[in-house]
Amino acid sequence: MPRTRSICAAALLAACSSKAVDTATDTTTTTGSSSAPDTTDTSTATTEGDDSTTTSTSSTSSSSAPTSTTAAPTTGTVDTTGDDTATTTGTTTEAMPSGPNVDVSDPQLYEFSFKADEADPAAALALGNQLAELDTTAPLQGRLVVYLHGAGAPTTCGSQAHGVVLARMGFHVIHPCYVSDYGVGNCGDDIGGCRLEAFEGVDHHEFIDIPPPDSIETRVVKMLEHLQALHPGGDWQYFIEDGKPRWSEIVISGISHGASSSGVIGMNRAVERVVMLSGPLDSDQAWLKGDPLTPIDRFWGFTHTGDDQHPGHLQSFADMMLPGEPFVVDGAAPPYMDSHRLVTSAATGDGHGSTQAGGASPKDGDVYVFEPVWRAMYGAD
């Protein structure tokens, strides 16, 4: 692992700054391309740069038209093509060497949407719509991506657009709702403690009080159990082991606040890998320099030079000792000199939101410009 604290490669000197970054600044999620600082509790938010995510709170069920494989998500039901039931009886399954047994006899994109308390009646906080995706037309990765939204209290959690991109790569994908509206500025010099409590539902910080049913870790298990009931053919239960998430087969990822929280989770659980988009930001916080349970060469970060938080991201990459020097991906191809500190200056109206799929992320025709970057970071084969 490179032992360097340098945060500026030659190509990035103009974009880097030695100015201290306010640790209380953590961009909230927004619909479209705007963002706002997270210094106090907020009441509403959706996802950064994702114009494909809805804010509907309808609890009615629906199914797709027979000819569509990409219909809008249903609430509490599986979205299928030409079949509104899911069964494994008499079907073909595809299993990884040691992975989920997935029914691929009727290949299609499956999308789901359900409220947190539909999956777990004990849930009381952050009760937005949770999303999930699985595309059985793609070669399966046999791994789950848990994707965390930014700061705020979204009515729909995560990014449908980003989830579909990942599902097309062969991942199972879920977007849990979780408590992220406490305002990191209220956590003082222990933002990591607030984030860890939001993850575990165990007391780590006096400012917040998050019980286990509202923790990220419990939400992951309850989502997978609910998805198994909705769609047994997806073998979602494979990603549960002894009542806990099977972290060794799970990629933890997120944007902004969710990126920083993903980093904390990777520090405290041995996950398959950590993918941080437009984050982490928690400048000068102790958790950034801790000893991670996930090897540091399994962490990736991606930041845009047009993001006001960009210098803070670079500093956090350095504090965490991510492999390599900052590498500009524009016009380059993987593996980006094996750097895990990836940078872009691609044209966009919202640098912060552009690092995830959605409205602010640049496209070349119908293809996202950053798809090769995402494939490299998430480890898509």
TrEMBL record:
Biased composition (Low complexity): 20-95
Signal peptide: 1-20
Disordered: annotated span: 20-104, 345-364
Domain of life: Bacteria
Keyword Lyase: no
The keyword Signal belongs to this UniProt entry's keyword annotation: yes
Species: Nannocystis pusilla
SUPFAM superfamilies in alphabetical order: alpha/beta-Hydrolases
Protein name, entry field: Alpha/beta hydrolase
Keywords: Signal
